[in-house]
Write a structure and sequence with these properties.
By secondary structure, the protein is of the alpha+beta class. The chain has 8 helices and 12 strands. It is globular and about 65 Å long.
Length: 303
């Protein structure tokens, strides 16, 4: 660790019980993808399993399989919607059509399971279903990148972040082969209309969200992931207002002044895992590392 960064971390520890620290030399550039990997949220999986899980969520009508977990919403056959075997068969066929196209057209084609490793984190006060979701990443013949993700439910967002929900505004001119592939993808996804999925529904919560597959394409793998997760409503990013008011902060006024005097470009990253949320309020040190605080939000189901 660089000496200057070490000194700043020591000061931050006076204000925050569990400071967040990112050493760029050790972990690489600070971005959402590297952050999730370092936190243990990302695991490589088979692309066929990704598609299967997207279909499973629709089959269950809930974000997790309640039969193997615990019940928090009506089961599929008890839900008030138009789901039936014919609809399921049609959608399975379209998902397989999409998978066949992507396998044929993309290189470096990989699937990832995104979720919290609760076994290694004893922070959680409440029991939660085993929620996770899957994404697909691949590169076109022209060197552009696609990232696909299902929309992600969110019952714990920090309400301050509802003021501004921004993804990267960076644009990249797509090559013709990429545009042609994009047209084929859009044609398939247009037939996979959003499906209403039940979250915590009992106890008066009545929470549902629209499950659908979204994607982003750009010249950078990392940026494609960030844009796709933003489109999936899993990721929110904003420039920080340095309004530290949580219980993690021993002296919020002094903490704000520390950020202003010693760090640059403060940002807030909010990651949603349905009923658990992670908030990273961070800023960059003069040496290129990142410091700040991490908060974990939990939804308590009380039917």
């Amino acid at each position: 660790m660089k000496l200057e960064t070490e000194k700043l971390l020591g000061t931050l520890e006076l204000f925050v019980r569990n400071p967040f620290f990112w050493e760029t030399e050790k972990w690489g550039k600070f971005n959402v993808w590297n952050l999730m990997r370092s936190e243990g949220f990302v695991n490589l999986t088979d692309v066929d399993l990704v598609i299967a899980h997207w279909q499973d969520v629709e089959h269950w009508g809930t974000p997790t399989n309640q039969i193997d977990d615990f019940e928090y919403a009506p089961l599929r056959d008890e839900q008030d919607d138009d789901w039936n075997p014919e609809i399921e068969k049609f959608r399975v066929e379209r998902y397989q059509q999409l998978l066949k196209l992507l396998k044929a057209e993309l290189s470096d084609f990989q699937g990832f399971r995104i979720g919290i490793n609760k076994e290694s984190d004893d922070y959680f006060e409440w029991e939660h279903p085993n929620f996770y979701f899957h994404i697909l990443i691949g590169k076109t013949k022209d060197g552009d990148w696609f990232c696909f993700s299902p929309t992600v439910p969110d019952e714990v967002s920090d309400r301050r972040l509802q003021r501004l929900q921004t993804g990267s505004t960076e644009t990249h001119p797509l090559n013709q082969k990429t545009l042609d592939l994009q047209s084929q993808i859009d044609a398939i996804l247009s037939e996979l209309s959003p499906m209403t999925i039940y979250g915590y529904y009992g106890g008066g919560y009545a929470y549902t969200y629209e499950h659908q597959i979204v994607y982003a394409t750009t010249g950078s793998k990392i940026l494609a992931v960030e844009k796709a997760l933003h489109a999936a409503k899993m990721l929110k990013v904003e420039d920080s207002t340095l309004d530290f008011s949580c219980s993690e902060c021993g002296d919020s006024r002094k903490l704000c002044q520390f950020f202003i005097n010693h760090l640059g470009g403060p940002k807030i990253y909010s990651l949603s895992f349905w009923d658990i949320g992670y908030i990273y309020e961070v800023a960059e040190t003069p040496t290129g590392d990142w410091l700040g605080l991490r908060r974990i939000l939990e939804f308590e189901f009380n039917p």
